[in-house]
Amino acid sequence: MPHLQIIFENKDYIVVNKQAGLISEKSPYEDETVENQVLNHLSTSKPHPYLGIIHRLDRVTSGVLMLAKKKSILVKYNELLSQRKVQKTYLAIVKNKPPHDSGILKNFLVKNQKEKRAEIIENSTKNSLNCSLSYRLLDQNEKGYLLEIKPKTGRFHQIRAQLSHILLPILGDEKYGSQQTYQPLSICLHAWKLKVPILGSSEFETFVAPLPDNAFWKHFEID
């Protein structure tokens, strides 16, 4: 299994570059998770360390993940997330050309519990949630088109579903219509940046996760 990649760590939290294929939280059905990896790391210097998942990434998604080392820190950052004061920026590779170089997608989303996928519908219903994101075309090459994506809401599978809805399924995402193969338990979706408020300050800090080290990402230019 992939090793733990630490981006930043202090007394309050730890930020890691999650590898695709792992789930974020401990599970009785998984031997290796990001939470297990981080707990093993923390246990080398402190017995029975506290660890709280501030936010999550899908198994198939790689990138920046922030975990709290204190309950009070978990509560504070969960509040900031709910207030939409945390900015997430993703990168995605799609095979098809986007209709525009940039845009905003606004949709209604429902969760299909049976198939464990999100579906985009035309009109609001009692079970639907609004979802919104902005995208920008950064580069293109023989592998496809590289998009920068900033979700405005945090819905289940919303990036994957919204891009698929405009015929831009993420490369390797068979669940949402991709015809291209990628790596096992992975799609070309990477949580690139996480901009968070510095507690007790009006300033922010941004954590950046290095891109996956494979040929699909290697030759794109990112500004």
Overall outline: globular
Segments where pLDDT lies below 50 for 5+ residues? Answer: none
Termini separation: 31 Å
Largest sheet: 11 strands, mixed
Mean pLDDT: 94
Question: Can you give the helix content as a percent range?
Answer: 10-25%
The Cα radius of gyration reads 18 Å
How many beta strands in the DSSP annotation? 11
Structural class: alpha+beta
Q: Multimeric state of these chains?
A: single chain
Report the sheet-strand fraction. 25-35%
- Order of H and E elements: EEHEEHEEEEEHEEH
Number of helices: 4
Keywords:
alpha+beta; 223 residues
Describe the structure.
There is one protein chain. Helix content is 15%, strand content 35%. The protein has 223 residues and is α+β, with helices and mostly antiparallel strands. Strands 1, 2, 3, 4, 5, 6, 7, 8, 9, 10 and 11 form an eleven-stranded mixed sheet that branches. β6 (102-112) and β7 form a beta hairpin. The longest helix is centred in the middle third of the chain and has 12 residues, at 71-82. It starts with 5 loop residues before the first strand and ends in a 5-residue tail after the last helix. The mean pLDDT is 94.
